[in-house]
Specification:
The complex is a heterodimer of chains A (139) and B (117). By secondary structure, chain A is α+β, with helices and mostly antiparallel strands. Chain A contains four helices and five strands; from the N terminus they run βααββααββ. Chain B has one domain: STAS domain (Transcription Regulator spoIIAA, 2-Layer Sandwich). Classes of the chains: A alpha+beta (139), B alpha/beta (117).
Chain lengths: 139, 117
């Protein structure tokens, strides 16, 4: 019987805490029974989502907080990242052309693409004044 | 905190950068600084040895994306070697193997640079 427990970590919006959050989520992914490749997929997806919150939602204001929750429901492992910064609008999102970005010497812009490749489902929601990204992967 | 550091050495006129630890948005600026410094010194033949690279996110990949064109235009290259499978997988997700010279061993990158004279 899988646990209904929700695990939670709250960190300041600084890249300094990326490693801690990655390890937190990877630990629980491992306990849930994922193999090492899947654990790495989840680790990277969470990193990319949190990096986007730090850069875009909070614009590197490290006085702000990010909440990361993790649980298992209906044979799905989920991670929810919540912030109170600027919303991300997935409408108008276009998959990046990597060759083009290299030609233009762009440093980033591939995080959302990676998250979608690595996880089975990704949802963005606005709840009251907070933004949520919920990513799930089937067990 | 993510632990990351860079060791540097030379093989003839080649610059070897060894990455140790986790490369993410927190640590990528260190790699960017190293590559910019090499470009400033007109050192364009760069081998990035990833033997001890345990993790990479798109912030790390972004450094390679931002500088490869400049380095190639100037007659050099950034060749990546000794990637662990879990790190290679991330490069692969973005189609890097067709865009970058990714080699199993550092010696192969050395040989390629020396043969390209």
């Amino acid at each position: 019987m899988p646990s209904r427990k929700i695990n939670k970590i709250i960190v300041r919006a600084s890249t300094e805490f990326l490693g801690e959050v990655r390890d937190f989520v990877a630990h629980h992914a491992g306990l849930s029974g994922f193999d090492s490749t899947e654990v790495e997929d989840i680790r990277l997806a969470v990193d990319e989502a949190m990096t986007n919150v730090i850069k875009h939602a909070y614009e590197h204001d490290s006085s702000k907080l990010i909440t990361v929750q993790q649980g298992v429901e209906n044979s799905e492992f989920w991670v929810r990242i919540t912030d109170s910064g600027r919303s991300f609008n997935l409408e108008g999102y276009v998959e990046p052309d990597i060759e083009e970005r290299i030609r233009l010497r762009k440093k980033g812009g591939v995080g959302v693409y990676l998250i979608r490749r690595l996880m089975d489902n990704v949802e963005y929601k606005k709840v009251n004044s907070r933004n949520e990204i919920k990513m799930t992967k089937k067990l | 905190m993510s632990s990351f550091n860079i060791d540097r050495r030379n093989i003839d006129d080649l610059e070897v950068i060894e990455l140790n630890g986790e490369l993410d948005a927190h640590t990528a600026p260190q790699l960017e600084e190293s590559i910019r410094e090499l470009i400033d010194r007109q050192r364009f033949k760069i081998i990035v040895n990833c033997t001890r690279l345990e993790y990479i996110s798109s912030a790390g990949l972004g450094v390679f994306m931002a500088y490869i064109e400049d380095v190639r235009t100037l007659g050099g290259d950034i060749k990546l070697t000794n990637l662990k499978p879990k790190v290679y997988n991330v490069f692969d997700l973005l189609g890097f193997p067709t865009l970058y010279d990714i080699l199993e061993k550092e010696e192969e990158a050395v040989a390629r640079f020396l043969n390209s004279h």
